[in-house]
Amino acid sequence: MDRVIRMPRPPRRRWAGALAAVVTASVLSLTGLAGQAQAADVNNAKNGGYESGLSNWTCTAGSGTTVSSPVHGGSAALKGTPAGQDNAQCTQAVAVKPNSTYTLSSWLQGGYAYLGVTGTGTTDVSTWTPDSASWKQLSTTFTTGASTTSVTVYTHGWYGQAPYYADDLSVFGPDGGGGGDPAPTVPAAPTGLTVSSTTSSSVSLSWNTVSGATGYNVYQAGTKVQSTTGTSATVSSLAASTSYSFQVTATNSAGESAKSSAVTGTTTASSGGGGGGSLPKHAVTGYWQNFNNGATVQKISAVQSQYDIIAVAFADATGTPGAVTFNLDSAGLGGYTVDQFKADIKAKQAAGKKVVISIGGQNGTVSISDSTSATNFANSVYSLMQTYGFDGVDIDLENGLNATYMTQALRSLSAKAGSSLIITMAPQTIDMQSTSNTYFQTALNIKDILTVVNMQYYNSGSMLGCDGKVYSQGSVDFLTALACIQLQGGLAPSQVGLGLPASTSGAGSGYVSPTVVNNALDCLAKGTNCGSFKPSKTYPDLRGAMTWSTNWDAAAGNAWSNSVGAHVHALG
Questions:
Q1: What is the pTM of this model?
Q2: GH18 domain: from which residue to which, for each copy (predicted)?
Q3: Which CATH entry fits the domain spanning 191-267: 2.40.50.1020, 2.60.200.30, 2.60.40.10, 3.50.50.60?
Q4: Is there a contact between 542 and 496 (Cβ–Cβ < 8 Å)?
Q5: pLDDT(404) > 50
Q6: DSSP 8-state assignment for residue 402
Q7: Which of 201, 253, 349, 437 pairs with 369 at a CA distance of 20 to 30 A?
Q8: Burial 431-441 (b: 16+ CB within 10 A, else e)
Q9: Is 398 a catalytic residue?
């Protein structure tokens, strides 16, 4: 969320243009891994597992080193650390044959990471992944020109972002004559398969990494139901109070392993959906600014009646890892007192509204990265709920999160607060492109207690829709095709909302008129007023919409809430 007028949110705007280009150039590589190598193909890359240090590799500005942990396979991996204007690019010249097709792939983890090739003599290609807490495989294909005998493959991170890790890089295709790492063998069957969590409609699984594996298949009662590149998966759309048997196999270009030992996961009894207390079927969320940035200054009592959930922006980090506090900006809000603030919250609740404390925002620095910080987070948020009367929490961490420990924190908070707890989330578009992204994983992990995910459809580069096509922000199609990813990826329709700025001043880019928002809502809920993209089914239980912010809405004469709010509540 933007705290400053018309200022784009770092780091996103720094790479929005590059992101749009990369997404457009590598749609195929993001929507699925390239096919397996042919029998005569060899791996032309050398030291792709970094077992010989940085031999055959050149890294800019001393940005690369090898580490013993984390590793995907073997005993070493590359760590690239961006600094200043250096993006930690590591390159290798690879011998290839002219007029030939090759598959470039690598496993990556950590901060934003890119994989690509130059000097192909045809079209140079690249692909990328946002920050990831676990290993993720990227793969793309390229074709060499008529006189091309060498290409340069590379990995790099992004300016000012966290270090990235790379391992098991390969360039499979015809032998270029330069030598390379040996071809893989069929991996062993996975071990350590366990049920990590269950809900009334899903079972989450995890297992140990298999050396040499590039992917895994999940089997339910002997039938393949899912493929993944990581060592965890969530099987959704299951019946409540039912037992299911699962097995996992490991795969690479040499083939598929035998199945693992089976485990049984039993779904919980149905609770009628996620958290939310007595919210209306279709709800509108608005962020209330605890600061003055030029928008209309409001007290909670002045927030427009169309808003069903009011997210107080923002809590503040403390010196204790994971812990947050709240400091009312009385001076910036015209002398608004804590007692008035508390009383206004109670009055809104008496009118049937929910008020939550938002964590993060554009400048949020809260990090939940281990069990201790998860506990601190849950305890501190619950303390704020007791002190101010908040109904729950909004997760708006725009600099990444750890799915494992954020899940732990929110489940701990739920255990303290009970079934009436409101949990909302406001991820950026990039955070919800795939169920492997940590934000999406967290949402699925807490599906049984999650109220709504209001993704921010603004300050964004071009993104993939659920149909594999690239869409640019500012259209009905951008809203519907991206919402479709969440709807098909495991979230209930009642847990999906559309987040848009209330005016052109509310975000750096991505504002659309209320009519466009309403058309997108109709398209998803009723199948009408769609653009070129039309979902394969309708979602009449779609939760609604969100805006940044109630203050910018007020500054624009309440045009957003008067139009979108009324439309949401009339969805039926």
A1: 0.61
A2: 282-572
A3: 2.60.40.10
A4: yes
A5: yes
A6: -
A7: 201
A8: bbbbbbbbbbb
A9: yes
